[in-house]
Design a protein that fits this description.
Number of strands: 16
CATH topology of the largest domain: Rossmann fold
Keywords: ATP-binding, Cytoplasm, Helicase, Hydrolase, Nucleotide-binding, Nucleus, RNA-binding
Enzyme class: hydrolase
Shape: globular
EC number: 3.6.4.13
CATH architecture of the largest domain: 3-Layer(aba) Sandwich
Catalytic activity: ATP + H2O = ADP + phosphate + H(+)
Largest sheet: 7 strands, parallel
Bound molecules: adenosine-5'-triphosphate
Distance between the termini: 50 Å
Number of helices: 19
Radius of gyration: 23 Å
Structural class: alpha/beta
Organism: Phyllotreta striolata (Striped flea beetle)
Strand content: 5-15%
Strand order of the largest sheet: 3-4-2-5-6-1-7
CATH class of the largest domain: Alpha Beta
Helix content: 40-55%
Length: 466
């Protein structure tokens, strides 16, 4: 099918979906049909108007948050004002985005500027960092050059796939842009020279492809993106591999884009050290956690009491989906077996599954086939499942015996995506875990309130957003 026909069908489907009254081409689109660029732009604007109309009619809460300068969704510009290529703009509207979030509005002008600017950016979980860097990646591709020009590194297989899918969606009207996943399971014959413009992958595979097998030339990259940048360059994370990849880039001609919801002091220092003259966008500590995620703790006597609390809470709140985080695979396996025995439809995702199994578990969860997903830190970052309303920390996150505040924030950020409301519940079964909980509370300066898991009225109230 031609791109025009594809577009016409898409517009008509969108019209049906959001119930817009009528969509006919405006004079602007008709008059510009001889000039594909102008025509595309006019079509994109037209679609923006339709989507806005739909949103206004739905009295979407997000629109209210957009007006609040303190909200991470606040923006004064439209996507049209961000100087994106017309086909990308169509892709953005196709995703249902009607206005940029704060991080998109502030970073995109810098990322698209000439000469290219390096950037280290921080924005709360679920506020649209992916679209910010993906739009920049897609904008920087020169389709006449048949080799990798853009590299995006993610910490996990699932996140790389999710980012690639978002990129493919945004590039729907740019069919000439080609992308390749460099993740576990992807095979490339020896002596291949990759011709795709964009590579999205995990550090180990990219190191193999770029340095060991030379499937592409790291020196020819013009854009390097580190998603979840803090964990990628921290000693506890993927530092060795990422720093090796980074060292092999052309430091003068490769634009660096680092994004994360968290950067501790030391990691930020290191980021500033390896990125030349970066623009830095940082949050104040008190801005890091989101008000739309309400945080609670439940006092429990022991592990089976924690189990009892979960089933009570979930049975009462019951709507939407839940992710439960455990510190070890063993606990995750125990909990999922116990919940399954008691008749709950749960899925478990931990590092001992094959990558295919992991993706299939996540896909089923996204489709709502299981309402509860039990996992470990492997899913703490970046994973975007809109309908997750509850995150439970069956165990609080600790690193070397200390509270792991960054992981805590990423874990609870699996709910409350893009302005939605969410609930985070921490199960406390000892004075030691209570102290960890208090330390996390003090770190972010956000109250974690006591919840009585036996009090169904109270649980119902928090489930209703009171
Ligand atoms: N401008 C926008 N309008 C509407 N929805 C948006 C917009 N930008 C992003 N979204 C949606 O918001 C959700 C969260 O975005 P995204 O996953 O990029 O967040 P993030 O900031 O990368 O979060 P994390 O820190 O958890 O990785 C996604 O479902 C995405 O499609």
């Amino acid at each position: 099918m031609s791109e025009q026909a594809d577009w016409a069908r898409y517009v008509s489907e969108t019209e049906k979906k959001i119930g817009a009254v009528e969509i006919t081409k405006t004079d602007e689109t008709v008059n510009n049909e001889a000039d594909p660029d102008k025509s595309n732009l006019a079509e994109a604007s037209l679609l923006a108007k339709i989507i806005r109309k739909g949103l206004v009619e739905n009295k979407n809460d997000i629109e209210i948050q957009r007006q609040d300068p303190k909200s991470p969704l606040y923006s004064i510009k439209t996507f049209e004002a961000l100087d994106l290529n017309a086909n990308l703009l169509k892709g953005v509207y196709e995703m249902g985005f009607n206005a940029p979030s704060k991080i998109q509005e502030t970073t995109l002008p810098a990322l698209l500027a000439d000469p290219p600017q390096n950037l280290i950016a921080q924005s709360q979980s679920g506020t649209g960092k992916t679209a910010a860097f993906v739009l920049a990646m897609l904008s920087r591709v020169d389709v006449t050059k048949k080799y990798p020009q853009v590299l995006c590194l993610s910490p996990t297989y699932e996140l790389a796939i999710q980012t690639g899918e978002a990129a493919a969606h945004m590039a729907k009207f740019c069919p000439e842009i080609e992308m390749k996943f460099a993740v576990s399971g992807e095979q490339v014959p020896r002596d291949t020279k990759l011709t795709e413009h964009i590579i999205i992958g995990t550090p180990g595979k990219v190191l193999d492809w770029g340095i060991k097998f030379r499937f592409f030339d790291l020196k020819k990259l013009s854009v390097f993106v580190l998603d979840e940048a803090d964990v990628m360059i921290s000693i506890q994370g993927h530092q060795d591999q990422c720093v090796r990849i980074h060292k092999n880039l052309d430091q003068n001609n490769c634009q660096m884009m680092f994004f994360s919801a968290t950067y501790d002091q030391e990691v930020m220092g290191f980021a500033e050290h390896i990125v030349k003259n970066p623009i830095i966008i940082r949050l104040k500590r008190e801005e890091e956690s989101l008000d739309n995620i309400r945080q609670y703790y439940v006092r429990c006597k022991n592990q089976s009491d924690k189990y009892h609390a979960i089933t009570n809470i979930y049975g009462t709140v019951g709507i939407g989906q839940a992710i439960i985080f455990c510190q070890t695979r063993k606990t995750a396996a125990w909990l999922s077996a116990k919940m399954s025995e008691d008749g709950h439809a749960v899925a478990v995702l931990s590092g001992d599954l094959t990558v295919d199994q992991r993706i299939s578990v996540l896909d089923r969860f996204r489709e709502g086939k299981e309402k509860v997903l039990i996992t470990t830190n492997v899913l703490s970052r970046g994973i975007d499942v809109e309908q997750v309303t509850i995150v439970v920390n069956f165990d609080l996150p600790v690193l070397n015996g200390k509270p792991d505040c960054e992981t805590y924030l990423h874990r609870i950020g699996r709910t409350g995506r893009f302005g939605k409301s969410g609930i985070a519940i921490n199960l406390i079964d000892s004075e030691e875990t209570m102290n960890i909980c208090r330390a996390i509370e003090n770190h972010f300066g956000k109250k974690i309130q006591l919840l009585d898991a036996e009090d169904s009225d109270e649980i119902e109230k928090i489930g209703n957003g009171n």
